[in-house]
């Protein structure tokens, strides 16, 4: 399917021009998905609180708060702001527990606790952890942090230099600090840990550094490591035992994590866990993605390269692999599968199914049976040309050989680019509409592979891949997605990739931010932009909502451009670095006209 | 960091000295701090709490210290610069500092702005000893004459790049994200 054909097929709803609030009529109810619901119980906190990265274990990023509605959102205004003191990419989201808000900054990963009951919201405490400065140069894609988790009176989060810390939520006292990664090998940590029962689930970054990816569980009380599972290597290391039952026959191979690699190349094979973790308490399974294999240059690692670029279900008590699925076997486009897995129950073919919905870097949106790993549906959600579809008998993509990358060959115009149809910026799901709200990129790339040598602690990439805007003259789109039928309901085209997370609310208003610094409120049904506000620096974090001590609903979001898109692609670095002045990147040549680096929390209310 | 880790592809660069564990023999002169000029204290002649600041003290002098005066035997040598460009790729400098040093994970090398000094000796020191934000210390791991080739190459990258003013009409360059 050509990208043009894809667009024609998927633009079914009412297009809304970016930056122009409009009164588009509501979409008919036939575009809503009746019966769809969040697949896990509500979190054990009040509706007005937000204690986990995505609020619930399902990763829905849905809040029951409903004071803000399509009718009144036009009255939204800035209530207060807070400067984090750090100029770097502010991914992730604040937490609110009780009447305290908790923030974690990019490196050096300062944590703040703000007292929401006092005028001016003074700090209860500020925690400045030890954090090795060398980590700044080992992190591939800016020095981001995707936030903390709260449970049992503890704030738990990861440090860029490879540590996990727990802090007393009341006092800011460090309770434990555990080294999880080896910085000298290029292991950093940027992901938000997820607390499951009494365990803290942590994974590493470093897929561009030739590390060997892992996921681990720590005891919440002590920080003691309870298990660690690698994602590449022999069955004993990846914890693929008698309970491992991948859905597809071709995956039922002994030692799949070594047999699908040449020689010992799996030892530097990537497959890191730098995205979001989900948890189904009923099935007692956690779900995580894994990064690209190392290096990008696929000539150096023929084979499926399991379990890189994969979605994996594990037992949170033991780490055992229960099932695994590779959206992109033998990834040669840097299509990590780390994007969040949203756990929902959907009416599929007339019967309710427990599924996870995953918007992969490779441009396909997958609806997968989360008990078995069976792909029920896989449809493009952005323009793409690297594959013509997914074979549901095998789960494998039908690769367009013209777009297969190779060493010493410059393959032109591959869509999506290595940033993916969507990257780490998390989508949201609303049970009110049954729809997913997805921040997407519309970028394509040329890709030339190159032989690369593994040198510990340095990049292990072996490819050059300049990017350009995809077909249609826009570079990002905020879309509403029906995961039962695999179709886009509506979309809001943006001049830049949509690199922020999404918040869905029971008031039927969804929120997202843009790289050029607009926070937008959208009608969850029609896709009409109802309100927008220009914050100081581009938004790469995820909006969240909470109830203040005054009983009002607030919307909070970080402003602070950065991450891969801000630092590497735009090439506009923080202005407080006089020794590092870069020429603009061709991919987003105008971004620096509309925003510059910052580090602020913006909070809005009616 | 160690290069003793198994290499998965040959370091087939230029036919220079061996890559692995070459113990650098830096000229002795580079290892010595200039002798500190001290005025002998003369008890009884002046108060002990009085310290005279010599007028040649400059802020940031520490970054222009003992290495700064080293000269690069390959400075301006086209053949050695070309070899340095190959080493820049082979030692994975490229993926940190960007294609042609345009900046990526690590800072740009095209802007003629130097965090730790831009003389050949300063740049040699940055490569040899590493720098705090994660620049690895290559000294003793690759040969000094390879470092000098890299220095000669890196110092050419700023040529013709005027970066002080951005008016959004100038040229842009292709960048690779991760």
What does this structure look like?
The complex is a heterodimer of chains A (606) and B (178). In chain A, 5% of the residues lie in helices and 34% in strands. With 606 residues, chain A is mainly beta. Chain A has a single domain (3-605), classed as Methanol Dehydrogenase, Chain A, CATH 2.140.10.10. In chain A, the strands form 10 sheets. Chain A has a 5-stranded antiparallel β-sheet, with no helix packed on it. In chain A, strands 2-34-35-36-37 form a 5-stranded mixed β-sheet, with no helix packed on it. In chain A, strands 3-40-39-38 form a 4-stranded antiparallel β-sheet, with no helix packed on it. In chain A, strand 4 (95-97) and strand 5 (100-104) form a beta hairpin. Mean pLDDT of chain A is 94; it is low at 1-28. Chain B has a domain at 78-154: Cytochrome Bc1 Complex, Chain D, domain 2 (Orthogonal Bundle), CATH 1.10.760.10. In chain B, 22% of the residues lie in helices and 0% in strands. Chain B is built from 4 helices and no strands.
CATH architecture of the domain at 78-154 in chain B: Orthogonal Bundle
Report the count of strand segments of chain A. Answer: 40
Strand line-up across the major sheet of chain A: 1-20-21-22-23
Q: Termini separation of chain B (Å)?
A: 22 Å
Instruction: Name the chain pair with the biggest interface and residue counts per chain.
Output: A-B, 59 and 48 residues
CATH architecture of chain A: 8 Propeller
What labels would you give this structure?
heterodimer; A: 606 residues; mainly beta; Methanol Dehydrogenase, Chain A; 5-stranded mixed beta sheet; 40 strands; 5% helix; globular; disordered N terminus; B: 178 residues; mainly alpha; Cytochrome Bc1 Complex, Chain D, domain 2
């Amino acid at each position: 399917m050509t990208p043009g054909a894809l667009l024609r097929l998927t633009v079914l709803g009412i297009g809304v021009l970016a930056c122009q609030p409009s009164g588009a009529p509501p979409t008919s109810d036939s575009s809503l998905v009746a019966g769809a619901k969040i697949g896990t119980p509500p979190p054990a906190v009040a509706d007005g609180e937000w204690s986990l990265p995505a609020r619930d274990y399902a990763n829905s990023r849905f809040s029951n708060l409903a004071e803000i509605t399509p009718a009144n959102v036009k009255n939204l205004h800035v209530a207060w702001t807070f400067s984090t003191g750090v100029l770097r990419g502010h991914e992730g989201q604040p937490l609110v527990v009780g009447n305290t808000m908790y923030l974690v900054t990019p490196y050096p990963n300062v944590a703040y606790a703000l007292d929401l009951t006092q005028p001016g919201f003074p700090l209860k405490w500020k925690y400045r952890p030890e954090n090795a400065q060398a980590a700044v140069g080992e992190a591939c894609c800016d020095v981001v942090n995707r936030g903390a988790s709260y449970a049992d009176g503890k704030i738990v989060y990861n440090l860029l230099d490879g540590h996990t810390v727990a802090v007393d939520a009341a006092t800011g006292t460090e309770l434990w600090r555990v080294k999880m990664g080896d910085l000298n090998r290029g292991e950093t940590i940027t992901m938000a840990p997820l607390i499951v029962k009494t365990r803290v689930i942590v994974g590493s970054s470093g897929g561009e550094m030739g590390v060997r990816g892992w996921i681990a569980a720590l005891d919440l009380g002590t920080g003691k490591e309870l298990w660690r599972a690698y994602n590449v290597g022999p069955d004993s290391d990846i914890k693929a035992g008698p309970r491992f039952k991948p859905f597809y026959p071709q995956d039922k191979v002994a030692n799949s994590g070594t047999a699908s690699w040449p020689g010992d190349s799996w030892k530097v094979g990537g497959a890191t866990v730098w995205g979001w973790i989900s948890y189904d308490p009923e099935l007692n399974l956690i779900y995580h993605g894994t990064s690209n294999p190392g290096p990008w240059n696929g000539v150096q690692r023929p084979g499926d390269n399991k379990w890189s670029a994969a979605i994996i279900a594990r037992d949170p008590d033991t780490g055992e692999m229960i099932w695994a699925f590779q959206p992109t076997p033998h990834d040669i486009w840097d299509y990590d599968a780390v994007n969040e897995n949203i756990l929902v129950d959907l009416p599929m073919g007339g019967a309710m199914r427990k599924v996870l919905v995953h918007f992969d870097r490779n441009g396909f949106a997958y609806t997968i049976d989360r008990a078995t790993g069976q792909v029920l549906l896989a449809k493009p959600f952005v323009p793409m040309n690297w594959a013509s579809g997914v074979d549901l008998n095998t789960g494998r993509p039908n690769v367009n050989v013209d777009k297969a990358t190779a060493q010493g060959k410059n393959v032109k115009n591959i869509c999506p680019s290595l940033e993916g149809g969507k990257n780490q910026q998390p989508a949201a799901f609303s049970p009110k509409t049954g729809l997913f709200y997805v921040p997407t990129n519309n970028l394509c790339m040329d890709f030339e592979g190159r032989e690369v040598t593994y040198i510990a602690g340095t990049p292990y990439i072996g490819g050059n891949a300049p990017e350009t805007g995809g077909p249609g003259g826009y570079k990002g789109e905020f879309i509403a997605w029906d995961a039962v039928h695999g179709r886009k309901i509506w979309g809001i085209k943006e001049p830049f990739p949509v690199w922020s997370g999404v918040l869905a609310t029971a008031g039927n208003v969804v929120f997202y931010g843009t790289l050029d610094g607009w926070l937008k409120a959208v009608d969850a049904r029609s896709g009409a932009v109802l309100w927008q506000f220009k914050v100081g620096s581009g938004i790469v974090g995820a909006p969240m909502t909470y109830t203040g001590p005054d009983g009002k609903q607030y919307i909070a979001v970080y402003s602070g451009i950065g991450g891969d898109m801000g630092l590497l692609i735009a090439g506009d670095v923080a202005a407080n670095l006089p020794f590092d002045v870069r020429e603009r990147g061709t991919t987003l040549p105008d971004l620096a006209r509309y925003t510059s680096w910052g580090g602020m929390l913006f909070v809005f209310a009616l | 960091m160690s290069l003793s880790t198994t290499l998965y592809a040959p370091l087939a660069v230029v036919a220079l000295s061996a890559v692995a564990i070459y113990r650098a023999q830096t000229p002795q002169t580079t290892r010595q701090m200039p002798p500190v000029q001290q005025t002998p204290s003369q008890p009884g002649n002046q108060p002990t709490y009085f310290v005279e600041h010599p007028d040649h003290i400059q802020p940031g002098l520490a970054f222009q210290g003992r290495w700064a005066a080293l000269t690069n035997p390959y400075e301006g040598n086209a053949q050695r610069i070309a070899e340095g460009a190959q080493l820049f790729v082979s030692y994975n400098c490229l993926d940190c500092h960007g294609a042609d040093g345009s900046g990526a994970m690590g800072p740009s090398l095209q802007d003629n702005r130097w965090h730790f000094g831009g003389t050949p000796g300063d740049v040699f020191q940055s490569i040899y000893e590493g720098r705090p934000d994660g620049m690895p210390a290559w000294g003793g791991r690759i040969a000094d004459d390879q470092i000098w080739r890299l220095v000669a190459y890196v110092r050419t990258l700023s040529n013709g790049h005027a970066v002080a003013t951005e008016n959004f009409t100038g040229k842009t360059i292709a960048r690779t994200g991760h």
